[in-house]
Amino acid sequence: MKVQAAVICFTARGRDTAVRAARCLIEAGAEASVWCRKKKEDTLPEPAADSGYKESEPGEIIELKESVRDWTGERFADSQLIVFVGATGIAVRSIAPFLKSKTSDPAVLCVDETARFVISLVSGHIGGANEFALRLADALGAQPVVTTATDLNGLWAVDVFARKNGLIITDMKKAKFISAALLDGRRIRLGSEFPVTGDVPEQMDLVRIEDVPEQMDLLQEDDETEQGSRDDVQAPDVAVSIRTQPPQTLALIPRIVTLGVGCRKDKDPEELDRFICRVLEEEHIDPRSIEAVASIDLKKDEPAITIFAARYHLPYDTWTAEELRAADGTFTESGFVSSITGVDNVCERSAVRSSDGGRLILRKRAENGMTLAAAVRRVEIRL
Fold first, then answer.
1. DSSP 245
2. CA-to-CA distance for 364 and 300, rounded, in angstroms?
3. Distance between CA atoms of 149 and 134, rounded to whole angstroms?
4. Per mean pLDDT, which range of 42-46, 200-204, 351-355 is the poorest?
């Protein structure tokens, strides 16, 4: 999905800079629009001849007729990046009423009219404002201004790492503790159940964690667990995993799990919901890692499955028997299922098919006319 960027300016000179900024963003792959404030008695100024802006390109200049506050509120709702071309004070006062959280606020930059400085104001890491500031400053020949502590000290930032890899940060307080530990010069352990590429930061120890429930059972046992057992399975400070983690670990969750589901006709939706949630809990699969639900096309309108997918805001993929038979792998066979559907297994095959040939992490679980399997899409984590 393209980044939706909004650029606002207030003067003729600012408009020239806004046009340049928008064009830079468009060339970087964003969808950018420019708004310009003018007084009623003024004419809307034309861009300078050397601004490089073409009216036929994306980013048509729009006359701002509403208040800057109202405009800002609308952009907080529909844009991932907001660029104010003008004084920092205007930007700060405009965004103040709409700030909620670093996990949800859009990236906000402020560029002075002469394009000398590009300042990262809000959502430097998760929203990508720092990265946008560096990129835009380079394109404009400006000086980037980034004030986040980890960036100033050249340290690894867990929220940037999570954003770039599409990971869900489960606890922002723990994320702050990780950053504080790095700023204090302490080492951290990063565990991942997926392949990791890139250079390992100086203060980090990279460890492999296995995606087996037995490890999680051991790590989450109470204080009576023998010390020797704990030493064998040491919890990392940060874990990239689809599995639930012990309390002391910051979990970063990739949404890469597909549930393959089957059930008898007109199955009670609540019973299916309870069954799926219980199995996920037993297998230590974090529900936030689920990206889709899948089944055979014979079940595309099955209420129990469609209600489950809608309840948890998950896409629901269905496949023909022929498409499921083409899935690569070794699956649990059932003659009865084959006689009804034309394929020997629905839940495992549909999970694998919808995860682009992913790896089965949960083989068929069956109970009272319901079946469940799970597959994980292949992913590589980049430092």
1. -
2. 20
3. 16
4. 42-46
What gap in Å lies between CA 215 and CA 196, rounded to an integer?
20
Per-residue CA distances from 290 to 267, 362, 374 (Å) = 22, 13, 9
Q: How far is residue 326 CA from its own chain's centroid?
A: 31
How far apart, in whole angstroms, are the C-alpha atoms of residue 67 and residue 215? Answer: 56
List, in order of start, the domains of the chain with CATH numbers: 4-147 (3.40.50.11220), 158-251 (no CATH), 257-381 (3.30.420.180)
pLDDT at 208: 83
Identify the CA nearest to 20 among candidates 130, 105, 118, 145: 118
Handedness of CA 250, 256, 257, 262 (dihedral sign): positive
* Packed helices 303-311 and 269-282: angle between N→C axes, nearest 10 degrees: 60
Report pLDDT for 38: 63
102: pLDDT confidence band, cut at 50, 70 and 90? confident
Tell if the pTM clears 0.85, that is, is over it.
no
- Are 71 and 8 in contact by the 8 Å Cβ rule? The answer is yes
At position 302, the amino acid (one-letter code) is: E
Q: Is the dihedral of CA 111, 115, 117, 123 positive or negative?
A: positive
Sign of CA dihedral 150, 156, 159, 160: positive
Q: Could you give the maximum distance between any two Cα atoms of the chain, in Å? A: 81
